[in-house]
Amino acid sequence: MVGFLLAYAALVIIYMSWGMDLTVQPTNTFGGLMLTLVLSVVAIGVSLPLGIVLALGRRAHTMPAVQMLCIGFIELVRAVPLITILFMAQFMLPLFLPEGVNFDNVVRALVGVSMFASAYMAEVVRGGLQAIPKGQFEAADSLGLNFFLKMRLIILPQALKIVIPGIVSTFIGLFKDTSLVSIIGLMDLLLIAKSSVTDSKWLGLEHEAYFFIALIYFVFCFGMSRYSIYLERKLHTGHKR
């Protein structure tokens, strides 16, 4: 799986750098399945590490400023719907950028979706951290490990194994929530289908279009679910009787 992701990332970098004799398309021209995959993959890749950092920051009792900052971010983002985050990223984000710096609509949507997913991921990871017995922390302290080594070598591996179902569930919900970007004018997979069925040449075929869209979402979501089950069995996160 990791090798596949690295190979995919390498192909994307090669394409974006040299184009492979193809016309390089700016991100504001992305649409359909391509846009849905870009939004979901980037948001998933950003939300997991950022969520871990936020979860650790929320438990940093020795650093009250960092703890309050993380708590404020998590609670503020979780208190509003994703649509509000998307509108703020679309219209408010340019106001905080220096003059002359501007991002296209896709990048703004990526920022909004990643922030939203990170807040929920932080709570999932925090649940895993709270499930670790206190003895594990004391054992790490007795070995003389500092905070970063303790988390990297002992606490986080156990916590992340416990919350694999919650992490994958968040990823599945994030993949489906990318359809909300149509509200800010981005032509995602679902909006492309809606636009096509309004064409006079495709009248009466809306059932086929929506069935195909549902099939695509099912394949990706079911694939993530099965991979989650595979990881659980491989890492023995369940308690066998």
TrEMBL record:
The lineage of its organism: Bacteria, Pseudomonadati, Pseudomonadota, Alphaproteobacteria, Rhodospirillales. Gene3D superfamilies: MetI-like (1.10.3720.10). PROSITE patterns: ABC_TM1. GO terms for molecular function: transmembrane transporter activity. Residues 33-228 form the ABC transmembrane type-1 domain. InterPro entries: AA_ABC_transptr_permease_3TM, ArtM/GltK/GlnP/TcyL/YhdX-like, MetI-like, MetI-like_sf. Belongs to the binding-protein-dependent transport system permease family. HisMQ subfamily. GO terms for cellular component: ATP-binding cassette (ABC) transporter complex. The chain crosses the membrane at residues 29-56, 68-93, 105-125, 153-174, 209-229. This is Amino acid ABC transporter permease. It is found in: Cell inner membrane; Cell membrane. It is a multi-pass membrane protein. Keywords: Cell membrane, Membrane, Transmembrane, Transmembrane helix, Transport. Its main location: membrane.
